[in-house]
Design a protein that fits this description.
51 residues; 2 helices; 86% helix; mainly alpha
Length: 51
């Protein structure tokens, strides 16, 4: 049971990091398109699900 809670907490931390990274990228990178930002976010989230 504790292992499940730890896994969930770890995934939430990873998810939060991915969202923060996408936000910072969108805010700071000049010339980034919405399509590129979404593609990068989608790839990061898929990697989170696989890992």
């Amino acid at each position: 049971m504790d292992r499940t809670v730890e896994d969930h907490s770890s995934q939430m931390a990873n998810f939060s990091e991915i969202v923060r990274k996408a936000y910072e990228t969108g805010k700071n990178e000049n010339g980034i398109t919405l399509e590129k930002l979404i593609a990068d976010l989608k790839l990061d989230l898929e990697n989170l699900m696989v890992g």
